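tool_call: predict_structure(chain=1)
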Amino acid sequence: MATTSILSNPLGAQAIFDGGVPRTISAKALEIISGGQWVTFSGTALVVSGVDSFASADLTAFGTIQPQLCNGMALNNAGSDEWVTVAKRGAYLCYAGAIVSGGAQVSQNASGAVQNILNTGSVATTTMGATPIGRALTTSASGTALYALIDLNL
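tool_result:
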């Protein structure tokens, strides 16, 4: 699905539940990131060899452009080389980019919206299918003003 939207919600990340303990990670933004945007982590290969060599700045984040790659939802706006907090768990209101069925596994569609994962069995073993980001708690049709409550599990 092609759309000009890049935010899961134009109001930013809208947490409904966080499970009592927010599950977040801090990372350095590689580009301008808006709160509510799906992000992917990157980093220099072989930087971390043990706990003593890990630093939060080893994780770098950028807006995801592929449904196969998603590490979470940005919770704040961040400029390039600024800190961004990324939600890995919690329930958030997200644009519905296609039909979303309550209870179904969902993925992000690289345009800021979510959709049902329809069939992972047809994906070739040499390609990655859409990454499940969680389950829908509510049902929604597709539309720019239609949302689904998504329980993230990343």
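agent: The chain has a mean pLDDT of 84. Proceeding to next step.
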